[in-house]
Every structure is written in structure tokens, then in C-alpha cells.
Design a protein that fits this description.
- This protein has helices at about 20-25, 25-35, 55-60, 95-105, 110-115, 115-135, 145-165, 170-180, 190-200, 200-205, 220-230, 235-245, 250-265, 265-275, 280-290, 320-325, 360-375; strands spanning about 10-15, 40, 45-50, 65, 140-145, 295-300, 305, 310, 315-320, 380-385, 390, 395-400, 400-405.
- It is α+β, with helices and mostly antiparallel strands.
- A 6-stranded mixed beta sheet has the order 1-2-3-9-6-4. Strands 5-13-10 form a 3-stranded antiparallel beta sheet.
- It starts with 11 loop residues before the first strand and ends with a strand.
- It binds 3-methylbenzoic acid.
- 3-methylbenzoic acid binds near residues 89 and 247.
- 3-methylbenzoic acid binds near residues 90 and 246.
């Protein structure tokens, strides 16, 4: 007789998906996990995991069996106290989730967001125009860090304005977003460093969730309006503003940085975008598929369940490798190819099901405006030095991305 039930579990892998080695170059590890089986047991964390598209997708969609209210990170909220009061949308299940989700779905709908398009477009033109004009004269190319000057600068202006935040201190959203997503992983060095960096801004964040701080017309005010209309309590409104501040900035910064990296390393795809800037929106999604900003999320089983032959007990954590599912050759032709004309709809870079990214229209609008402006004003974009990767428990992206642009 085996000593423990789980000793019979196959296949077992002794990988640490939150080690520097794994996070620096995850794709060969993803392949090992995907090819070991549809569902594997990660010994290090005593945890189930799946890296195949079919199982990741099915798990995301079955919220009754794979719940979010025990946390969507490694930590089980039923066993460990969360580092902050749980999100009422991310870390909740129906019926509680439904009410919060309805408010953000409305406030962030394609139609509601459309009023921001002109402002976003003007800001993208202004930002790209200024960069391309350059200080040193543009003839020999313009060199800068695309993370700071594009991927951060644009959302820090347009997203924070859209929410209704004052100009002062908005860069605090970066350290906070970094913390929120790192906290989904184990309490390793990345977690501790992120916490140390975020500690000084936590009070600022809490203060900027309050009604008095936010402009009267922004997305934050619209959430408080839902509270006035009886859909939420005032405290719930503050927590939903906190969700915007947690998940709305760092994610798009990383996604835009990754898209620029993909183009800088695939010049022929840049030329395709230049020929047809209308491809900007789906090019952004192709970047989300190939270099998924949110690499992983967890779920927790609510009952015993058989997933593709694996017998999971109730209250078990399962790690979903979204970034690996998005490169599963069972689902994608030439998965490692960056092809802005592929049929990319259906990727799980923004999740799937009831918890799929509620801000995705806003993210896509930002990307469409920024990449569109670049496509019109930039003839060529190349790497101009070694990018510096950010090692992170959840997010995959760059801290520094040196590029050289040739103005159009
Ligand atoms: C890390 C994360 C993702 C999505 C939503 C939230 C946080 C939230 O705070 O609601």
C-alpha cells in the first residue's frame, strides 16, 4: 500500500515554475509539462498543474468546480490569511462575483470605452510624434527605452486619466500592480522584493480609491455612481476601484512592451503592420498569445473531479499555465511564430469564462491607438541593446527594452 494517496499520481515533475531559471526561459519547461501529460503533479508545491490548451480552457470555464474564492494564487485563503482583503471580483465566485462583475462589465464595455478613443488617439500621436522628432535629430534613428518612453508613458497618461486619478503619484500604480501579481506566487524572493517596493505606496493606493480623490467623470466615479444606484455598497465601490488600480496598469504596460519586443525582433511583421495599421488590434492579441503577460493563474477545486484522467480531490489547488496553453501545438499551427495575420481569437492570454479580463476593451483600445500611431510614424524598429527581463511570479515582460526607431 502506498503511504500517501498522491504517491500514485502520475506524471510527477520536480520543477519550480517560480524559480529564476524557469522564469527566465519558461518555454522549454512549458513543453516538458505539456508533453508529460494533460495534468501533472508538481512535487515541489504539492500542486496539480496543466499546460495544455484544452485543459486550461476547460478549467477556466468551469467556475463551479474550479473556484476563485479560495484565491487565484498558490495560497489557499481557507488556510492562510490573504495579504490584503480579497478582491470582490477576482477572488470571488457567483453569486457575489456576479454583482461586482456586472458593474465593471458595464463601465468597461466596448461602447462605454469608445468615448475615450479620440483622446487616446491624440495622446498616442503626441507621444509618438515627440519621440520620433527626437532630441538629437531623427536622421540617424532615435534611441530610447521603449518600456519607459512608450509602454509605461502611454498608459500612465491615458489609463490614469480615464480612471480619474490626479497627475501626482500615478507611477505608484506600477509598484502596486507588480506586488498584486507577484503575490499570486509563492512567498519567494520575488514576492518579498515586490512587497518591500510596494509597502510605501499601499497607503497612497488606498487613499486614491476614495471618491473625493477621483475626478467626477472618470471610470472611478462611474463605479461610485453604481453604488449610489444601489448596485454596490460604498465599500464595495472602493474595492472595485482598487481592482482597476491593481490590474489595469502594469498589465497593459507589460503587454505593450511585449508587443514592441515582438515587432523589434520580427521586422517583416512590422512592415505588414505599416502596410495595414488596421491590423494593430489583432497584432496586440497575437502578442498576448505569444508572450502572454499573465503567464499563470490558479484555481481551487470545490469537489472531487476527474480532469483528463487525473483524479483531483476537493480543495486542491491547480496551476494553469496560460502562456503555455497559448503555445500548445495541439491548438495552434506554428505556435512559436509571431504572425499578426493569424486567427488569434480564442487565446487564453486574457483568460476565458466568467473571470476573463474585464478591462480587455480598454487594453485593446490603448494598444490599437499606440501601435497604430507607431505604424504610421515609424519605418523600422530594432533592438538597440540587450533587453532586461523582469523576473516575476506571474507576469512576463521587460524592465528595459532599448530600441532604435527609424522615422517614416
Ligand atoms: C491581479 C489581479 C488581476 C485581476 C483583478 C485584480 C487583481 C483585482 O484586484 O481585482
Amino acid at each position: 500500500m502506498p503511504e500517501r494517496l498522491d504517491s500514485a499520481v502520475e506524471p510527477r515533475l520536480d520543477l519550480d515554475p517560480f524559480s529564476d531559471e524557469f522564469l527566465s526561459e519558461p518555454y522549454p519547461y512549458h513543453e516538458r509539462i505539456r508533453e508529460a501529460g494533460p495534468v501533472v503533479w508538481l512535487e515541489r508545491y504539492e500542486l496539480w498543474a496543466t499546460a495544455r490548451f484544452e485543459q486550461v480552457h476547460a478549467t477556466l470555464r468551469d467556475w463551479e468546480t474550479f473556484c476563485s474564492s479560495a484565491g487565484v494564487g498558490l495560497s489557499d485563503f481557507r488556510k492562510e490569511a490573504p495579504w490584503r482583503p480579497p478582491s470582490i471580483i477576482l477572488e470571488a465566485d457567483p453569486p457575489e462575483h456576479t454583482r461586482a462583475r456586472a458593474v465593471l462589465t458595464r463601465v468597461l464595455s466596448v461602447r462605454a470605452i469608445e468615448v475615450l478613443r479620440e483622446t487616446f488617439q491624440q495622446e498616442a500621436e503626441r507621444l509618438v510624434g515627440a519621440l520620433v522628432a527626437g532630441d538629437q535629430g531623427a536622421k540617424h534613428g532615435v534611441r530610447f527605452d521603449a518600456i519607459e518612453s512608450l509602454a509605461q508613458a502611454f498608459p500612465l497618461k491615458v489609463f490614469a486619466d480615464a480612471v480619474g486619478l490626479p497627475a501626482d503619484g500615478r507611477e505608484n500604480l506600477l509598484a502596486y500592480g507588480n506586488m498584486v501579481f507577484n503575490a499570486l506566487g509563492p512567498r519567494n524572493r520575488l514576492f518579498d522584493d515586490a512587497m518591500a517596493q510596494a509597502e510605501p505606496v499601499r497607503e497612497w493606493i488606498a487613499h486614491h480609491c476614495s471618491r473625493e480623490i477621483l475626478s467626477e467623470t472618470g471610470l472611478g466615479a462611474q463605479i461610485y455612481q453604481a453604488a449610489d444606484d444601489g448596485e454596490l455598497t460604498q465599500d464595495e465601490a472602493a474595492l472595485l476601484v482598487r481592482s482597476l488600480l491593481s490590474a489595469g496598469l502594469d498589465t497593459t504596460v507589460i503587454a505593450l512592451g511585449n508587443a514592441i519586443y515582438c515587432f523589434a525582433t520580427h521586422p517583416e511583421q512590422w512592415q505588414r503592420l505599416r502596410e495595414d495599421p488596421g491590423l494593430a488590434r489583432s497584432a496586440f492579441d497575437e502578442g498576448l498569445r505569444l508572450e502572454s503577460p499573465a503567464q499563470t493563474f490558479f484555481r481551487t477545486t470545490t469537489r472531487r473531479v476527474n480532469l483528463a484522467g487525473a483524479d483531483l480531490p476537493a480543495h486542491a489547488k491547480i496551476l494553469l499555465f496560460l502562456g503555455a496553453a497559448n503555445r500548445d501545438p495541439r491548438r495552434w499551427e506554428d505556435p512559436e511564430k509571431f504572425d499578426i495575420e493569424r486567427k488569434v481569437a480564442g487565446h487564453v492570454g486574457l483568460g476565458s469564462g466568467i473571470h476573463a479580463c474585464v478591462g480587455q476593451s480598454l487594453a485593446r483600445l490603448e494598444a490599437e491607438c499606440l501601435l497604430g500611431a507607431l505604424a504610421r510614424h515609424v519605418a523600422a524598429i530594432e533592438l538597440d541593446g540587450e533587453p532586461v527581463r523582469r523576473l516575476h511570479n506571474t507576469l512576463r515582460g521587460f524592465d528595459v527594452l532599448p530600441v532604435a526607431l527609424t522615422p517614416a
